[in-house]
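Dear H.,

Thanks for agreeing to be a second pair of eyes. The structure we're designing against is below in token form, covering all 502 positions.
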């Protein structure tokens, strides 16, 4: 806006109402004319001040509170908040830059403390379990402990076990058993820690190698960005092709005069002949197969780059490897091991399509179950869905390792899968610890980076004059929503960094 009113002596034309009038439909075609009349009238202005060079906000406190409520709870709030977010793009860019910096700091911290954190977790779990068990048993037998102390040490004063507070079930035997379970748990954790010491060392070495690889090949941090871009472009063309395939069916229009109902928007449906439905099904299957193949090539390229780094010799304390190894992996996937990738993605596509088909059947059974009580079939379908999803997750988890074995040993999919299964059986403890600690570091990284980014954004928006002064072009009336948008940006950057742990 160029200027805002400063008194009530001026008038402005304001929208009042919109009246729609429909003409009588044509008896043959059903066509009709809709005429809309928009009414405006002059209304007295009120004193206002310019905000961010775009808005005139009322100077009156009461009117300002009403406007704030309007832009918080009404449907216009979304557009208002979106305008604030777009206007604050430089704040979001700053939050993304800070997140990148925090991501590298977090990776360095994890590389430094990975070993102490894992060993410290075992030690702390052991001490807490043993301490809790001893405390629980002493508290349960407090009277006997006090009597024994008084008898053997002739101590009639000082600390007394009976003054300890211990949660009780009301039964001394059960309380003693609970204390004993804590003791057994502590001893078990200690024995388990000694037994898997070599596995823990392997996990620590794996984490350190992963983070060192990211230091030497920072381009791998962009892999999630490449994956998101591929998914967007592929789905765009997939839906475009699906629209063409669906168009082979016959279009059935609704009768606009049926029952006096006039549908709004696109009111039509498609009907297919028996020989046309297989085309739609095959297209859906191939589309899902192609999407999974794209994911497989991305995983293969990532594994190709990491193994290239792993087998490179150290030079002056670091490994020198080409930053184009990821692209070389894509080329290798298409030219050397395409059959392996096609087969692995085919398995996932089969389970996904089977899950989708069975989901439709389960939905229909659930609807019919509400009417006819077909609960047995409904439960059986639900169990089948659960099994299909479990197998899909298992194959998806194994495929990453299968592609890595394929790159190193140049084996087919089935032979590489056999090797992976043998390794998983042999190193089950190490894999379990690695999977668990990886999820902890990933979750902690996303929370820390996102939290720090949001906190810094909030402090800047609340304290920098450029964002708090209403006359400033960068003024942000409601920083909460810009901070939330910055949080999403920071979470996306954090996810890119945490993806390296996979």
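And this is the sequence the design step returned. I haven't edited it by hand at all.
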């Amino acid at each position: 806006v160029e200027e805002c009113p400063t008194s009530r002596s001026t008038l402005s034309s304001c929208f009042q109402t919109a009246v729609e009038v429909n003409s009588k439909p044509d008896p043959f075609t059903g066509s009709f004319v809709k005429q809309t009349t928009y009414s405006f009238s002059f209304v007295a202005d009120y004193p206002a001040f310019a905000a961010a060079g775009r808005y005139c906000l009322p100077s009156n406190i009461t009117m300002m509170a009403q406007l704030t409520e309007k832009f918080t709870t009404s449907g216009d709030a979304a557009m208002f908040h979106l305008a604030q977010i777009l206007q604050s793009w430089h704040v979001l860019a700053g939050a993304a830059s800070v997140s990148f910096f925090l991501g590298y700091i977090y990776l360095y911290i994890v590389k430094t403390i990975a070993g102490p954190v894992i060993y410290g977790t075992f030690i702390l779990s052991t001490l807490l379990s043993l301490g809790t068990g001893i405390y629980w048993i002493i508290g349960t037998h407090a009277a006997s402990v006090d009597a024994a102390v008084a008898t053997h040490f002739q101590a009639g004063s000082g600390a007394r076990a009976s003054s300890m507070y211990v949660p009780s079930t009301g039964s001394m035997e059960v309380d003693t058993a609970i204390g004993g379970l804590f003791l057994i748990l502590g001893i078990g954790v200690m024995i388990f820690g000694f037994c898997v010491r070599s596995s823990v060392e392997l996990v620590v070495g794996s984490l350190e190698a992963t983070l060192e690889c990211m230091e030497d090949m920072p381009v791998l941090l962009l892999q999630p960005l490449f994956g998101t871009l591929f998914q967007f472009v592929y789905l765009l063309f997939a839906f475009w092709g699906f629209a063409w395939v669906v168009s082979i069916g016959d279009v059935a229009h609704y009768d606009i005069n049926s029952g006096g109902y006039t549908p709004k928007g696109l009111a039509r449906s498609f009907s297919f002949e028996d020989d046309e439905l297989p085309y739609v099904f095959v297209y859906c299957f191939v589309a899902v197969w192609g999407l999974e193949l794209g994911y497989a090539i991305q995983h293969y390229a990532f594994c190709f780059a990491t193994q290239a780094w792993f087998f490179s010799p150290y030079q002056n304390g670091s490994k020198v490897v080409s930053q184009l190894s990821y692209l070389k992996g894509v080329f290798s996937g298409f030219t050397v091991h395409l059959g392996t990738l096609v087969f692995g993605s085919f398995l996932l596509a089969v389970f996904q399509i089977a899950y989708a088909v069975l989901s439709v059947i389960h939905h229909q059974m659930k609807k019919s179950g509400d009417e006819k009580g077909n609960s047995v079939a409904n439960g059986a379908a639900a169990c089948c869905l659960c099994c299909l999803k479990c197998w899909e997750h298992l194959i998806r988890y194994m495929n990453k390792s299968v592609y890595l074995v394929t790159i190193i040993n140049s084996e087919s999919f089935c032979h590489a899968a056999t090797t992976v299964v043998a390794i998983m059986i042999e190193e089950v403890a190490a894999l379990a610890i690695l999977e668990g600690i990886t999820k902890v570091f990933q979750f902690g990284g996303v929370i820390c980076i996102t939290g720090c980014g949001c906190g810094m954004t909030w402090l800047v928006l609340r304290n920098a004059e450029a964002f708090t002064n209403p006359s400033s072009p960068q003024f942000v009336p409601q920083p909460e929503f810009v901070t939330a948008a910055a949080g999403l940006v920071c979470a996306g950057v954090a996810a890119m960094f945490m993806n390296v742990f996979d």
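Two observations from my side: DSSP finds 15 helices and eight strands in the chain. The two ends are 51 Å apart (CA to CA).

Warmly,
E.
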